[in-house]
């Protein structure tokens, strides 16, 4: 009875989460340019349209480039910071940890507006590089959190042993620390990448008038009516996110990454 | 290797790049925004430097009061809905097999990472007349003809709960995984039904977690800016929408900045409250 009740509850929550995705998937295979569900006819043409139509293709390329670069920059900011906080005893340096987490905790429109005023004042407004930096700052929280977790799980006696054998900081980092935190490094990159791919407001306020990322493209298209390419792009994005998080779960410890310290089973 | 205080200046070297980036591209923009909120609007360009309180004084209008009131009300409603749905769900999830947990976590993360644009588009499709959920009800014979369910308050609320629910589950998850299972076992041994054990043991034990989660989801919901635009009417617009509108379409940066500063203050106040609730939780 209770097991049944639990199944029903899980089923309802699951249904709520997938229902919009099912409908959009259905809409994306309409044969003609209809917004109809159940779909009228069947065609995968709208998926081809993402790559065939230069506007959508450019938006896709812009989004992926932005996500790849900004996640890498976020990692470059987070790694030395997390390493320093783990290696050194410097309480005041925690301020930077706080600064790294703040942009993500505040409502995104605030970070977006701050960056917009900054880029407008300094005269770089609208240049593609500004979006990369903006996203890196906005999402630096994610690699920072995963890396802090990674560093805290390193057994310090391992590092001590290496140091006793005469390894300097650089060697210890390369041969002991880096292999141990690699999963956290990769998952931090993955989180930042996926979220950057989907981010709208910061991208819109920095490069919205000169370039289109996919979320901006979808929103602009949404204003002028409907095209099934929006639906196929949506499904593509769901698939990308699910694949990346699936890989993180496959090669890393997802429950632990999300804060469950006691890994059971 | 024990953690040691930095000895030489070169020991600080790793900090240089992260600290520089965060200061130049977060602290400085933030300070610029605060400064701009006191500037005067320049109809020709962006703004001209000044020190006026006009932008803040504009808050004291009925229109602004209504928008603020609605934003807070909407965020409270979303937070309550999410916690009510997510608390039993996360509790049950934390008691399942690891494999099941991982599968759900992947699904939740995938939904959580979805762009607001995409969530808005998906729900507007689901609520539309031609491709919406009412078509299903017509097929089942419950309704006579399909209708459009948006724009409406219900549509905005549903989509925002959809957006915030995975976040709520992930915020609750660590606390619930660490919850001592012997607590409920003891209650069960003493004859309490699972439901009674949940409400009399689990919920009180997590009181502070629940309060902290409510506040975090509230802040998360406060940040929503596209869903009210896509699924609601102008009276359903939130403070975030208004800030974007002023900054981009009305080119009134000083007023947008003033509203943003105000939103920061509200948020910071709530974060302080969360920390306070957490501290009390640890002490208890």
Description of the molecule:
The complex is a heterodimer of chains A (265) and B (284). In chain A, 77% of the residues lie in helices and 0% in strands. By secondary structure, chain A is mainly α. Chain A folds into 2 domains: 1-43; 54-257, MetI-like fold (Orthogonal Bundle), CATH 1.10.3720.10. In chain A, helix 1 (2-28) packs across helix 12, helix 3 runs antiparallel to helix 9 (169-198) and helix 4 packs across helix 7. Chain A is globular. The mean pLDDT of chain A is 86. Chain B is an all-alpha fold and 284 residues long. Chain B has a domain at 74-237: Orthogonal Bundle (MetI-like fold). Chain B has helices at residues 13-36, 54-57, 62-94, 98-113, 116-126, 133-139, 153-178, 181-189, 194-205, 207-222, 227-231, 239-249, 253-283; strands at 40-41, 47-48. Chain B has a two-stranded antiparallel sheet with strand order 1-2. In chain B, a hairpin with a 5-residue loop joins strand 1 (40-41) and strand 2 (47-48). In chain B, helix 3 packs across helix 7, helix 4 (98-113) runs antiparallel to helix 7 (153-178) and helix 5 packs across helix 7 (153-178). Chain B is globular, with a radius of gyration of 24 Å. The model of chain B has no long low-confidence stretch (mean pLDDT 83). The chains are: A mainly alpha (265), B mainly alpha (284). The interface between A and B is large, with 101 and 90 residues.
Provide a concise account of the structure shown:
The complex is a heterodimer of chains A (265) and B (284). Chain A is mainly α and 265 residues long.
Largest interface: A-B, 101 and 90 residues
| Biggest beta-sheet profile of chain B | 2 strands, antiparallel
**CATH topology term of the domain at 74-237 in chain B:** MetI-like fold
Q: Into how many domains do the coordinates of chain A divide?
A: 2
Q: Any idea what the radius of gyration of chain A is? A: 22 Å
Helix content percent band of chain B: over 70%
Report the average pLDDT across residues of chain A: 86
Report the CATH C-level class of the largest domain in chain A. Mainly Alpha
